[in-house]
Amino acid sequence: MRGVAAGGLSPYESALAAVLGTWLLLAVLAQLGPVAPWLGQAVGRLDVLGLVPRYHLVATCPATHDYHLLIRTRPPGGRFGAWREVTTEPRRRRWNAVWNPDRRHHQQLFDLAMALARTDARSDDPATPLSVPYLLLLRHVSALAGRTEGAQVQFLIARSAGHRPAEQPAALFVSQAHRTGAAAR
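Now predict its structure.
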């Protein structure tokens, strides 16, 4: 073969090995960003195409609270019922340490709820009901509430202290009341 030393790599294989080796080194260094922020920033400057993965396998600031999505409905001509929780932790199984597809759904609800609670906790801003997080949560709770003609649904995002009973749960965000069913379209 031309261009290959005895038992060596071709120039193309050498270039590919150098590129993949550099990418692997940057990927390893990027995982150290929470421990050494300057290192994460340096890798971020070098990663102009966004090709270096950042896995965030360990949380630098662990979660200290539990977040809950609650809904209540009002039948046509009636009063709102009691709040009921619609987010429950899925039952943990042994294989969830390796494969846990339900976690993604719970994480999406958490991220949407936190986006609303951070931006407009009292639902005073007229633009809030038109925001993507609000509309996605409204669609989710409307599907859970059912399609009764003329009924209304309202949702609440609450935070509890988890296993610390001394701290009382707190409401972070309360939505406006919205019609469900065919009348809502």
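The chain has four helices and five strands.
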